Amino acid sequence: MLLLAVTACGGGGGGSDSGSGGDQDGKGGSGRADTKTSRAVVTIAPKNGADDVDTSGALKVTAAKGKLTEVKVENTKGEPVEGEITGDGASWTPADHLASATKYKVHAIAKDSEGRRAAEESTFTTLTPKNTFVGIFTPEDGSKVGVGMPFSIRFDRGITHPEDVEKAIRVKTEPAVDVEGHWFGNDRLDFRPEKYWKPGTKVTVDLDLDGLEGRPGVYGEQAKTVEFTIGRSQVSTVDAKSKKMKVVRDGKLIKTIPITSGAPSTPTYNGQMVISEKHKVTRMNGATVGFTRPDGKGEYDIKDVPHAMRLSTSGTFIHGNYWAPYAPGNQNVSHGCVGLRDVKGAWDGKQPAAWFFDNSILGDVVIVKNSKDTTIQPDNGLNGWNMSWEKWKA
Questions:
Q1: Domain boundary among 230, 245, 264
Q2: Predicted TM-score (pTM) of this structure
Q3: CATH number at residue 124
Q4: Residue 394 within any structural domain of the chain
Q5: Fewer CB within a 10 Å sphere, N or C end of the chain?
Q6: Same domain, 302 and 208
Q7: How many domains does the chain have?
Q8: Choice among 182, 307, 335, 337 that is catalytic
Q9: pLDDT at residue 205 above 50?
Q10: Residue 9 annotated in active site
């Protein structure tokens, strides 16, 4: 919509400022005003009153025969939309996508070569998506986690515009550290620094996904800030050969615990693994992870595994073992998990498994070495640390 400015002799004015005419307060001067309107023309797209406006690419402000000097865009809550006027003053575009189902107001001013202003205003409403996507993330807002915890978000729809989605997720840290994202397939995006987090780091993640088109016709619906804090550093190293685990906290060895790892036919993965779940008691059935007997039942089905903590999506845990009390420190007998001595029912807090459970938090790191198996894949659990920084950024 073009602004038609009207000026009146001796004062007043419409959408354009008057020029350097005579005194307009009646107290002297010639009493003559510059009746010329600004030559600048401001154009706002989309047009005033438009509905069902796309959240990306539709909003643009331009100036002809002049230069933009001010552009203000905000929603009905008064929240501003950031953007930047080009160096030549010819146009303005938003820095990011707009939210869906939201009404916006635009106010823009341009000046012509003689400094006279032209102003334009417009309101429009963005589309209401028929199809949406959300991201399920970890860790939880407000949590305190170990130094190995990435920020991981899994989307319920496959993403075909990954660059746009990644741009809309902003990770800030205090103290500042470089954090990069890495896609695993088209539905999972993890963020981490080059090395383990520094204890005490505060991490803030802004999910600006509302209105973002993640795939054709499918828009995000989350606008959320997630904050979490990195706790003390705890990195435990399991040596499958010596059958011992050394627990190191804040750089100091605090405990050595006998363990049993995978048997020769079912060895434990090597590599850096992150604790992603904790269960004081849980059921473990071999059939759920591919260990079955000829009759189709699981090779094992233990209904009350004590002090279990997940290390991989595929079923690797570090947990208490009461059914083979002789094994920790002496023999590797598991189907790939790491076992620590424990009692049935998880009632004895003095058992090694209970101590480790009570002294571990989500995001703590467990490293397995000297096993006969391969290194765990980076996307099998929250285990991106097994990928080099160069590959991670690529």
A1: 230
A2: 0.86
A3: 2.60.40.3780
A4: no
A5: C
A6: no
A7: 3
A8: 337
A9: yes
A10: no
CATH code, domain carrying 213: 2.60.40.3710
Q: Which residue in 103, 113, 192 sits closest to 152, CA to CA?
A: 192
107 is catalytic: no
Taken in order 294, 319, 230, 385, the sign of the CA dihedral is: negative
Identify whether residues 124 and 187 lie together within a single domain. no
DSSP 36: P
**DSSP labels, 216-279:** TTEEE--EEEEEEEE---EEEEEETTTTEEEEEETTEEEEEEE-B-B-TTSPPPBEEEE--EEE
Q: Which of 97, 307, 319, 335 is catalytic?
A: 319
247 in the same domain as 194 = no
Going from the C-alpha of 68 to that of each of 1, 117, 275, the distances in angstroms are 16, 9, 54
Lowest mean per-residue pLDDT among 32-46, 292-306, 322-336 = 292-306
Its domain, for residue 220, covers 135-230
Tokens matching residue 74 = 């905000």
pLDDT in tens, 10-29: 333 334 443 333 343 433 44
The arithmetic mean of pLDDT across residues 337-346, rounded, is: 97
pLDDT: is 301 or 75 the higher one?
75
